[in-house]
Amino acid sequence: MARTYNIAVFVGSLRKASYSRKIAHALESVASEDLKLKIVEIGDLPLYNEDLETATPPESWTRFRNELKNADGFLFVTPEYNRSIPATIKNAIDVGSRPYGQSHWNGKPGAVASLSQGSIGGFGANHHLRQSLVFCDVLTLQQPELYISQVQNLVTDDGKPANENARNFLSNFMQAFERLVKLAVK
C-alpha cells in the first residue's frame, strides 16, 4: 500500500482570489494521490515578537506549529512584492522557527513556486525565500525551479491549469517534488 505524504501549503497572498491561491489549487490538481496537499492559513499569525513566547503563546502560533509538526513536507506559493516575499510568508517562517532551538522546519523537504503577472516570474521572491529556507534546514527542491510568469495565462479562475501545456508544466514540478519528498521522508 502506498504511503500518503502530508504537504503543508503556504500561500503568500492573503487575497481570496489571488493568483497564488489559484496556483496552489492547480498544483494540488496535478499532484499524485500520494501527496495530500493542505493549505495552511498564515494570515492570522501575529507578527513574531519574542515577548509573546511564553508558556501560553498566541493560539494561532500553537495551531500553526502543530500543523508544521504533522507535515511531511512544505510547498510555498508566493507572489513577488517589491522584489521579495510578502511579509506573511516571512512571518510564518519566523513563527515556525521559534522558540529558539525548536524549529519545526528542520530537515523536511520543501519546494518554492513563485509567480507574477509580468515576465520575471517572481525570481526575486523565489531566491529570497530560498535563503530563509536554507537557514531553517528545509531540504529545498533545486530543479526544476518554478518561476511562473504571466500567471494570468496559466491558471483558470477556479484554480485549474489553463491548458495542456500548463498542466504538463505544473505536473513536472510536482513529480520532481514528490520524488524529493519520498527520498527525504522515511
Could you characterize what this model shows?
By secondary structure, this protein is of the alpha/beta class. The chain has one domain (5-184): Flavodoxin domain (Rossmann fold, 3-Layer(aba) Sandwich), CATH 3.40.50.360. It is 36% helix and 17% strand. The chain is built from five helices and six strands. The protein has helices at residues 19-30, 59-69, 87-96, 123-135, 164-184; strands spanning 5-11, 35-39, 73-79, 109-115, 139-140, 146-148. Strands 1, 2, 3, 4, 5 and 6 form a six-stranded parallel beta sheet that branches. The longest helix is centred in the last third of the chain and has 21 residues, at 164-184.
Attribute tags:
6 strands, 36% helix, single chain, alpha/beta, 6-stranded parallel sheet, Rossmann fold, 17% strand, 186 residues
Sequence of secondary-structure elements: EHEHEHEHEEH
Radius of gyration: 16 Å
| CATH topology heading | Rossmann fold
**Which consecutive residue ranges, at least 5 long each, have pLDDT under 50?**
none
SSE diagram, text form:
Elements (H helix, E strand, L loop, with lengths): L4 E7 L7 H12 L4 E5 L19 H11 L3 E7 L7 H10 L12 E7 L7 H13 L3 E2 L5 E3 L15 H21 L2
Parallel strand pairs: 1-2, 1-3, 3-4, 4-5, 4-6
Compact description:
The chain is α/β, with parallel strands linked by helices and 186 residues long. The chain is 36% helix and 17% strand.
